[in-house]
Structure formats: structure tokens, C-alpha cells
Design a protein that fits this description.
The complex is a heterodimer of chains A (about 210) and B (about 725). Chain A is mostly helical and about 210 residues long. Chain A contains 9 helices and no strands. In chain B, a hairpin with a 4-residue loop joins strand 27 and strand 28. Classes of the chains: A mainly alpha (about 210), B mainly beta (about 725). At the A-B interface, helix 1, helix 2, helix 4, helix 6 and helix 7 of A face helix 1, strand 3, strand 38 and helix 6 of B. Chain B: Keywords: Receptor, Signal. Chain B: One of its GO terms (molecular function) is siderophore uptake transmembrane transporter activity.
Chain lengths: ~210, ~725
């Protein structure tokens, strides 16, 4: 009797927490993802980054919280007047943490390429030569890991566009890739439902590349 | 324990988890008690938490109750944990002070004497790419450094001269390992170059004094070159130049990479087209083979190996002052260098390094009928360990051993003489950050030499203080010892260390796109080698010389003001006098002009896909002894040295660079000194020959093509 009550108590405890964990995680992520959409200044971006980092602390095995924290830092470096180099370095650190939790993940690899693109844009003359191949390599790897990752293809098209503009070669290659990424984005959109917390960003950037094509 | 009770408590706990609401509020401050916005506050193990506001305050709601831990996190600050007991309703927490973590990024660095070239560090003076794109450098590492403060250009020598010191006073290191005979052997007034290709290196650290106790056997300067880490992709690089060509191939994956290269150069065809002032019998020529490999070892380890072998020579007619006769100088040089080093991070904040390097230089010189062979070998073993005790205190410990055999031989007479030195060193260096704006460094280096049978100890000290966000002040002082050059030691093995003391005060201002640096110094010289007779045949060598160098230098670099334009201006003033070599009185050495100016400008023209560059180097002339004036030493000075160089780099395709450069565009007839006949002519005058340039100008054309089966590109095409 005693034993069975103990078992029951433990079971209830377990079920209570096990059930609570997943929806709570999803809900917490969704709350931050909603907040992410409203970011207008650096302070707000820091608040949402912190939100994701709290989830990362509490759900130690999830890679997405670190991924989003890194992504928001990267976007902050592009958008706001802050110490860009330092912020991108911090973003890379967070992306590496995500990578340790989920090695060989195409989204994380593409994000690392995106962060490098940010680093290159700060000093293209002296960084381009050494870092462009690294960024291309990461994006190429991301595409190989998951050919249905539209962000990897879209970012690669941006790199190709930059190269073609610099060297005055035609944008055909960049255009083809950007269009391809838009097709993958369409496929991705069909998967998105109420509980979808995986990355969905980057379509506008692909459209911008396409707009430069004739 | 009653199990019914346990069940009851469990159910109760679930209830409270669902219903109880507590608010937590407080304030986050920094060390000085100022509000710290943006800190992350969280109940450990739960999603509940918030971010501190602009006034440092925070407030959040939680359904947790009872004993918990509140975690305060903020990047750049030490994480703090606070045990709390949460009760329903309001929970007010006392203000929390977060302590800033001292990191490489936010703390002051010692900049006295130091100049770094890298893509990463914040106190960057030069970028690796600058070495290749500085017009006057002609792709030589030392050429680029000759545009930096504290250096002077000696155009008929080519080596690096720092603050009144001669070229041997600069210690050259690759990945922390000493390089013997880093410059090519040369003859006459033909300037030499560094043996190593700038593309090997990812960054350099150049110090014009007061440097770390990690470096010894250099009175004036330490130049540390750091080789590249893993290559990112497999590729082939082809270079076709007006003076030769080469090919290099790299194979790379994520764990390891290897690069093999071969080069050949011969100035013969070029000199056939463009007239030279020097009468070459055989133009400078040579070939080299090089292998460099990198491999990741374990999680944090990196192993690097490099080996190089080369052979070259030249043959030229040297005129004699006051005579119709000429002397044929014939030079052959063989050189090999190999090194391996390994670095890894261990547990408990230890970083260890171990390295071995070996160089062997063989010269065969024919001067008229005199035939000499010289062989110089250097084996260097080194191990260091760095321990970070905290973010404030770190220490470095190191041990080094050198084996250094040298010999020279007169072929016809069959005379050989030589020595083999063993040198041992121990060093340690401690860094202590009082706070992130103030750092102290103290170091000690002890050494002994078997040939000179002496032991010595060099204490060194430096301080850096952050004055305001962009400006910092640093001071460095220390003792430095260096054994005399091999040619002198072989004549008198009792020669002891030469000695120098440095005192340096440095101000550095840096903000995005601008760098300004001012540095003043005093340097004493003691125990310098003096002798009787001429440098070619010295007699009675002893440690009898002394002197000083003092001065101030300024550096300004601006990448911001003019679009696509980057320029830097350097001015160095050096006042140096010393008794040394054949000079019995304290004189201004020929290699230490007083006023030195250099200006480098680079401008990128996007529509032309081109970078154009210009550099101008000036100094007020070299001192020399004119026996026709009086009996004094160094009683005359040449006219000023001026060199305007231009370059044009054109990038028509991502993988193709065409580089055109011309030195001394204006064709100024620079003179570096005069050679006098030993006896007067019939009019009672010592006849002279100017030591001039090899040619008024040097033209360089190079085509650099990268061939890559870029896997990423191929994969994309397959999509």
C-alpha cells in the first residue's frame, strides 16, 4: 500500500512536471517571438535577447533559445547604433552555444554565416579577402545539411550578389538562388501553424535580391 | 514519513503552483552604485524573470514560492546568485551590485613600444593586408614596418633599424620561435629582403622597446610574426612576376590543412631591359620550397609545422675608390628553416605552448681572391605555460634553450674557426589588473651563455592607464641584453653581453577609423663591441663602447574622413650617439638619421576595381666620415633621402589581382654614404665613391591568380 502510494505520488509529480514542461516551453518561446516582432530600439532588443536567454537557462537542452538570442543580437548590430563588432562577436558566441546543443544543424550554420557577413560589412576592404570564403563555406555547408533551408540559400544569394556587384559580373547566379529560396520559403509557409517556433525569417531579404534581377 | 502526507503535500504543491502569485522587485547597480540597465534577472530553473530598466529597477511576477535562487546575469559582469524565500505578494530585494569582469575586450592594454598588426585587436596600427599593399614595401614585411614610428629606412641595407639601434638589435620570431638569419644574405649595396612571404602570417606584433620578458637577445626591438591558422579551402595560387614566378597549393578540410609552394626569381631579364647602376656579373637569383601544415589536435589544441629551404646568389663588380680596378664579389647562399609548435588550453585556466625551431645558413663569399665560407645554425627549444588565476591576475612561465654553432673557413688557406654556444633562459611575467583601467606588468628574464661564461638577469616593468574612453597612457622600462654578432664573437670568445636600458612613455588615442600615437623614449647603451681597424678586418675586439638614443615619434592614421581612402603619417625624431665598432668617440651612427617622415595613402576606386597607393619616405641624411675634412669621425652628412613610390592593384575578377608598383618614381639619386680610398692621390685628396642605389627606380609587375574548385560553389550549381 505504502509503496503504491509512493509510486502514485511520484507519478503524479512526474506527469505534472512532464506535461507542464513542453507547453510551457512553447508558450515561453512564443511570448518572446511575439515580442521580437515589436523591437524598435536597442533596449527592446536587449530585453527580448534576455528573454530567450532565460529560456535557454531553464531548458538546457534546447538550441532554439540560443539561436534566437544570437539572431536578435545580429539584427541589432545591423539596425542600431551600437558597438557592432562587439555585438556580432557576442552573437557568434551564442550561436556556438546553440551549435554545441545541436551539432550539424543547418539553421545554426546559416546563422553563423550571416554573422560573418555582418563582420565583413564592417570592414570589407581588409576582412573580405579572408572572411568571405569562410562565410561562403558556412552557407554552403548549411545548404548541404538541409536543402530545404531557405535562409541558407537566400544568404548565399546575397553573398553572390555582393561579389557580382564588386567584380561587375552579372547577377544571374545570385538571382537564380534568390528565386530558388523564395520557392523554399513558399513550401515552408505551408508548415507554419500555431505552435511553430522554428526560424521563418529572411524572405524579405531574398525578395530584395530578386528585385535587382530583370 | 507518512506517505499519505507526502501525497497530500504533492497535490498541495501542484495547487499552489497553479494559483499563487508573487512579485519580485529590486534594483541592479554597478560597482560605483550607478543603475545598470539591461541585466537579466531570473529564478533559477524557471522561465520567470525580467530585464532591468533604465534606472536599474526590475519587477516581475512568478508562481513560484518558497526557497529559490535568484540569478543576476549581464554580459561582461560576474554572474551573481542570491538565495531568496518567495512568499505570496510583494518580495522586495535589496539592491544588487554586479562586478564588471575584466576581459581582453574591455580592459586597458599595454601599448608602450608595442604596435600590433591584426584584424582583431583594438589597438591595431597596421592590418596584415597593409604589408602587401604599401607601395614602398614591394611586398616585403620589413618594407611595411619601415613606415611605422621608431624606424628608419636605410635604402642600401633593407633591414629594419629601430631607434638608433643597428639591424642586429631586432629579434625576429615566428610563432614565438626565434628565426636565425631571417634576411637574405647580400653583397655590396644591394638591399636585402625578408626570406618569409607576408602571406604566411595572420598578424604581427612589433615592439620598438620595453617589450615582454618572453623576448631576449635583442637590444632594440622584437618582431613577432604569427602564422595563419587552418586554411579555409583548397586552392592553388599562381604568381607570374616581372622577376620570376611561383605556385602554391593548399589542401584543406575542417581538421587540417597543408600548403606547399615553390618559387623562382631571377632579376637577370629585368636588368637586361632596365639599366642598373651596379655592374652585375650575375643578377640576384634564387629558388625556394616551402611546406606549411596546420592540424587541430583535441578540442582546443592546434599543431603547426613549417619547413622551408632556399638557395640563391649574385655576382657583381665592386668599384674601388681612387682606382681603375674593380673587385668581383660572388655570393652563394643556402638556407633552411623548420619549426613545429603546439598550443592547447588545459583545465583550470592553463594554456600551454611548446615549440622547436631550427635554421641553418650557409654563405660562400668570393671577394676577389679571398674565399670565405660561413655557417650559422640556431636550434631553439621553448615551452611556456600561462595560468589565469582570476580575471585580474595572470602569470606566464617559460623556459628556453638555444644551441648555436657558428664557423667560418678560409678556403685557400684552409683555416677554420668557430664556436658553439649554449644559451639557457628562464622567464616569467605577471599581469595584474587593479581594475579595468589600470594594469601592471612585471617580468623577469634570466639567461646564461656557455661561450661567454656569464649569467644575467633582466627585470622589466610596465603600466597602462586608461585616461578616458579613447585615450590611454602607458609606461615601460627594462633591462635588455644581447650577445655580439657571430662575426665578432668568433674573433674573441670572451666578448660579453652588450646591454641597454629602456624607458618609454606612450599615449594612444583610438576611435573608430582614427588612431593617434605619440611616444617618447630614452635608451642607454653599454658594453658595445669596439675594435681597431676596419669592419672587414677588426682587431682587438672588446666590450668598450657606450652611448644613448632618445627621441619622440608620432603616428596618425585615418580611415574615416575621406571616402574609400586610408592614410597614415609617421614622424620619428631620434637623437643617438654611441661609440661602437671602429668608432672610438661617441658619434651619430650612419643608420640613425635624425628626422624621419613617412606618408602612406591608399585609395580604392570602385568603378575601376582598383586600389591605388602612394608612399613617400624622407629622412634628413646619413652621417659618414669624410677624411678630407678633418680627423673627426662621422663629420659629414649625406643629402636627404627621398623616395616616392606608387602602386596600382587591379582586381578584374574575384580570383585575379594585377599589381604594378614603382619605387622612387621621381628618380632621386639617393646616397647612403661614401667609400674613400685608404690613401690620398697626387693632389693629397682621398678619392671617394658614393654608396648609391642599385638603380634609380624599381619597377614591379605581378599577376596573381587563385585557382579554386570551390566546393560550395559547385554544390550550389547542383541545386
Amino acid at each position: 500500500m505504502k509503496k503504491s502510494i509512493l509510486t502514485l505520488a511520484v507519478t503524479i509529480l512526474f506527469i505534472a512536471f512532464a506535461q507542464a514542461a513542453d507547453p510551457a516551453y512553447i508558450a515561453a518561446m512564443q511570448k518572446q517571438l511575439e515580442a521580437k516582432k515589436t523591437i524598435e530600439n536597442f533596449e527592446q532588443s536587449q530585453t527580448v535577447t534576455n528573454g530567450f536567454l532565460r529560456i535557454a537557462e531553464a531548458s538546457e537542452t534546447e538550441w532554439l533559445p540560443y539561436y534566437y538570442a544570437a539572431l536578435i543580437k545580429t539584427e541589432a548590430a545591423f539596425r542600431f547604433d551600437i558597438e557592432k563588432d562587439k555585438t556580432l562577436d557576442e552573437a557568434m558566441e551564442l550561436a556556438k552555444k546553440a551549435d554545441q546543443l545541436a551539432p550539424g544543424n543547418s539553421e545554426i550554420t546559416a546563422l553563423q554565416g550571416y554573422i560573418l557577413m555582418g563582420k565583413i560589412s564592417l570592414d570589407p576592404a581588409s576582412r573580405g579577402q579572408s572572411m568571405s570564403p569562410q562565410a561562403m563555406q558556412l552557407l554552403g555547408k548549411a545548404i548541404n545539411l538541409d536543402r530545404e533551408n531557405p535562409r541558407a540559400v537566400s544568404l548565399m544569394s546575397q553573398m553572390e550578389l555582393g561579389m557580382s556587384e564588386f567584380f561587375g559580373t552579372g547577377p544571374e547566379k545570385a538571382c537564380g538562388m534568390a528565386k530558388m529560396s523564395l520557392d523554399i520559403y513558399k513550401k515552408e509557409e505551408t508548415k507554419i501553424n500555431g505552435e511553430y517556433i522554428l526560424p521563418t525569417w529572411g524572405k524579405t531579404q531574398a525578395e530584395q535580391v530578386v528585385s535587382k534581377c530583370k | 514519513m507518512n506517505l499519505r502526507l507526502l501525497l497530500f503535500i504533492t497535490l498541495l504543491l501542484l495547487q499552489t503552483q497553479a494559483f499563487a502569485q508573487a512579485t519580485v522587485q529590486g534594483k541592479v547597480l554597478d560597482e560605483k552604485g550607478l543603475p545598470l540597465p539591461g541585466a537579466n534577472i531570473q529564478i533559477k530553473g524557471s522561465y520567470d524573470g525580467t530585464t532591468s530598466e533604465a534606472d536599474g529597477s526590475f519587477q516581475f511576477e512568478t508562481e513560484n514560492e518558497g526557497s529559490h535562487v535568484l540569478v543576476f546575469k549581464f554580459l561582461g559582469f560576474k554572474t551573481q546568485e542570491l538565495p531568496i524565500t518567495l512568499s505570496p505578494g510583494s518580495n522586495e530585494i535589496l539592491p544588487i551590485k554586479l562586478i564588471e569582469e575584466i576581459t581582453e575586450m574591455n580592459s586597458v592594454t599595454i601599448s608602450a613600444g608595442a604596435m600590433e598588426a591584426s584584424d582583431e585587436s583594438k589597438s591595431v596600427i597596421l592590418k596584415p593586408l597593409d604589408i602587401v599593399t604599401t607601395p614602398s614595401a614591394m611586398g616585403d614585411i620589413m618594407g611595411a614596418f619601415q613606415t611605422l614610428p621608431g624606424t628608419s629606412t636605410v635604402g642600401n641595407d633593407g633591414r629594419l633599424f629601430v631607434r638608433g639601434g643597428d639591424a642586429s638589435e631586432v629579434g625576429i620570431y615566428i610563432d614565438g620561435m626565434r628565426v636565425g638569419n631571417a634576411y637574405g644574405t647580400t653583397a655590396g649595396n644591394v638591399p636585402t629582403r625578408t626570406r618569409f612571404n607576408p602571406n604566411l602570417f595572420k598578424g604581427t606584433f612589433f615592439s620598438t622597446g620595453g617589450y615582454s620578458s618572453e623576448y631576449g637577445q635583442a637590444l632594440s626591438s622584437a618582431l613577432a610574426l604569427n602564422t595563419k591558422d587552418l586554411s579555409v579551402r583548397s586552392q592553388g595560387d599562381l604568381s607570374i612576376m616581372s622577376i620570376g614566378g611561383g605556385y602554391s597549393h593548399t589542401l584543406a578540410n575542417e581538421k587540417q590543412s597543408i600548403t606547399a609552394s615553390a618559387n623562382y626569381f631571377n632579376l637577370g631579364p629585368y636588368q637586361g631591359l632596365i639599366k642598373q647602376e651596379v655592374d652585375f656579373e650575375a643578377a640576384p637569383h634564387g629558388w625556394d620550397l616551402e611546406l606549411a601544415a596546420q592540424k587541430k589536435v583535441g578540442k582546443n589544441g592546434l599543431l603547426k609545422v613549417m619547413a622551408r629551404t632556399e638557395s640563391g646568389g649574385m655576382s657583381l663588380w665592386q668599384p674601388l675608390p681612387g682606382s681603375e680596378n674593380r673587385v668581383l664579389v660572388d655570393l652563394k647562399n643556402d638556407y633552411s628553416y623548420a619549426q613545429a609548435n603546439w598550443r592547447t588550453i588545459l583545465k583550470k585556466d592553463w594554456t600551454v605552448f611548446a615549440g622547436i625551431s631550427y635554421s641553418k645558413n650557409f654563405d660562400k663569399i668570393n671577394y676577389d681572391s679571398l674565399q670565405v665560407e660561413r655557417q650559422n645554425e640556431l636550434l631553439h627549444l621553448k615551452a611556456t605555460a600561462v595560468k589565469d588565476f582570476s580575471d585580474r591576475l595572470s602569470a606566464k612561465f617559460g623556459v628556453e634553450q638555444f644551441l648555436h654553432p657558428f664557423s667560418e673557413k678560409l678556403i685557400q688557406e684552409d683555416w677554420t674557426r668557430g664556436y658553439s654556444d649554449r644559451e639557457s633562459y628562464l622567464f616569467t611575467e605577471w599581469d595584474y589588473y587593479l581594475n579595468k583601467d589600470l594594469v601592471f606588468r612585471a617580468g623577469l628574464r634570466g639567461g646564461r651563455s656557455s661561450v661567454s661564461e656569464e649569467k644575467w638577469l633582466d627585470p622589466r616593468f610596465s603600466v597602462a592607464y586608461q585616461l578616458h574612453e579613447q585615450g590611454q597612457l602607458s609606461v615601460a622600462a627594462g633591462n635588455f641584453h644581447q650577445l655580439p654578432i657571430e662575426n665578432y664573437r668568433v674573433l674573441n670568445m670572451d666578448l660579453q653581453n652588450t646591454a641597454s636600458q629602456h624607458l618609454i612613455l606612450n599615449y594612444l588615442f583610438s576611435k573608430e577609423g582614427f588612431t593617434f600615437r605619440a611616444e617618447t623614449f630614452y635608451k642607454s647603451y653599454d658594453q658595445l663591441v669596439t675594435f681597431e681597424g676596419l669592419p672587414e678586418s677588426p682587431e682587438g675586439l672588446k666590450n668598450g663602447g657606450s652611448g644613448y638614443a632618445r627621441g619622440i615619434d608620432f603616428f596618425f592614421r585615418d580611415r574615416e574622413t575621406f571616402k574609400n581612402t586610408d592614410y597614415w603619417i609617421t614622424y620619428s625624431f631620434v637623437d643617438s650617439k654611441r661609440s661602437f665598432n671602429q668608432f672610438q668617440t661617441e658619434v651619430q651612427p650612419s643608420f640613425a638619421p635624425k628626422h624621419n617622415l613617412s606618408v602612406v595613402v591608399k585609395h580604392f576606386i570602385a568603378p575601376l576595381k582598383s586600389q591605388i597607393g602612394a608612399s613617400f619616405i624622407f629622412n634628413d641624411g646619413y652621417s659618414y666620415t669624410n677624411p678630407n675634412l678633418d680627423n673627426a669621425e662621422m663629420n659629414a652628412k649625406t643629402k636627404s633621402f627621398q623616395n616616392l613610390s606608387l602602386s596600382w592593384s587591379y582586381l578584374p575578377k574575384p580570383n585575379l589581382i594585377i599589381h604594378l608598383a614603382c619605387s622612387n618614381v621621381l628618380g632621386r639619386d639617393n646616397v647612403f654614404g661614401y667609400t674613400y680610398s685608404p690613401k690620398t692621390n697626387s693632389q693629397g685628396v682621398f678619392e671617394s665613391i658614393p654608396q648609391g642605389q642599385v638603380a634609380p627606380r624599381f619597377l614591379f609587375l605581378g599577376i596573381f591568380l587563385t585557382l579554386s574548385k570551390d566546393k560550395t560553389a559547385n554544390n550550389l550549381n547542383n541545386l
